[in-house]
Design goal:
This protein is an alpha/beta fold. It has two domains: about 220 residues, no CATH class; about 150 residues, 3-Layer(aba) Sandwich (Rossmann fold), CATH 3.40.50.2000. About 45% of the residues lie in helices and about 10% in strands. It contains 19 helices and eleven strands. The strands form two sheets. Strands 2-1-3-4-5-6 form a six-stranded parallel beta sheet. Strands 8-7-9-10-11 form a five-stranded parallel beta sheet, sandwiched between helices. It starts with a helix and ends in an 18-residue tail after the last helix. The relative contact order is 0.10. Its main location: Golgi. Keywords: Glycosyltransferase, Golgi apparatus, Membrane, Signal-anchor, Transferase, Transmembrane, Transmembrane helix. It comes from Rhamnella rubrinervis. InterPro entries: Exostosin, Exostosin_GT47.
Length: about 500
Amino acid sequence: MGGKQASRSKSRFLYFTIALVSISLLCILLSFRNPSQFTEQYSSRNPNSMPQTSFVASLDHFLLTHKAPPLSTAAQIGVKELDDLVWKSESQRLYGEPYYPINTPIRVYVYEMPSKFTYDLLWLFRDTYRQTSNLTSNGSPVHRLIEQHSIDYWLWADLIAPESQRLLKSVVRVYQQEEADLFYIPFFTTISFFLMEKQQCKALYREALKWVTDQPAWKRSEGRNHILPVHHPWSFKTVRKFMKNAIWLLPDMDSTGNWYKPGQVFLEKDLILPYVPNVDLCDAKCLSESELKRTTLLFFRGRLKRNAGGKIRAKIGAELIGAEGVVIEEGTAGDGGKLASQNGMRKSIFCLSPAGDTPSSARLFDAIVSGCIPVIVSDELELPFEGILDYRKIALFVSSGDAVQPGWLLNYLKNMSHAQIREMQQNIAKYSKHFIYSSPAQPLGPEDLVWRMMAGKLVNIKLHACRSQRVVKESRRICSCDCKPSNSTTSVPL
């Protein structure tokens, strides 16, 4: 009996030893796994870790993990039915319990448009990305230009992400139209403009226009609570006059009339969004290391010959080229040009940001994320998120008249004290996060500030949407919802 017990004890000890050795071997094997595989898996589970800021890399991941959902087969409701549902929803918010707090997130309904307006265009960009020889008429690489204006992708990708992976609290996606404050139109107008044949693109624009304007929610408000991303000034140009009531997401206002017709865009209705930077973020470590290397007083790299308001570039260039402490370079396309701009900005105290073909350019945001103080020479420029951000703390604003005066600009910069420069550099380090698009979208990033700005517009949007439904025809002769008096040819928004 004692021998059997001893034998069982030895067996149990042997099993225990084998199990312990097996676990140890497994731990050793796991420790030799590819760390990047672990990082990728961890990152996909934890939205707080390492946000992706590269458009191409983020798009690759997005297309591999998302598929175009089947189009809804639910019965389409009419405008009257939607209006009744909205009334019930708004009444519940206004009078229901619990009390509706003022700081609740904006509720956005994302249209599920046919894939030819969304996923197919993203795949078109991805499949043609390596064709870097494809240039615009002014020599800019097409795909790089699309990246600069890819705000439509970053906003949409965040809105349709599973709620468990989202970090923003300023906006929530709703699935019932009557619950929505705003409606997002996920049509990639810039990709279609640059990568499709001209007539094919125009046909797609007309199809998108019909699809959106046929929606009951559009008809109910005449588009006033709809968000239309048209961030490149050439995109959607042939039909956008039919959607001028919508909230346009723009790079600037351009009051010259070259890109937008009078009455189409104004600050009370539309929203200015920053370009996606062309250069990498100079983070805290980079800023610290580059501080003593900033030996160039003023840096500019780009095309000096531009159209319209951009003619100021050539005049400033002629004044500054060859001056001590100034680097003025003609820009080149491709990765080499990007690296040269990035290195130049990180070695400079001030970066010149003159108007281009439009009042704005990506160069302003390249300078900010590089820790270089922008010197803005663009008399008609409108800036993103102004009202939340005070650009006087991070940039210098110079009139075109002063900038072209011999010696004026250099004297102005040289008279800036070290304390003033240091303070502005510290403010830039804080502000740079507001201009970095990422997946997942980060709190206080540009996607977040979009919805914070929208919150300020929301009451006025609802005012005009409600007013448009009750006015009679005779009232419109007095004043339209855009406040365009019948006896005037100009638009004077409220």
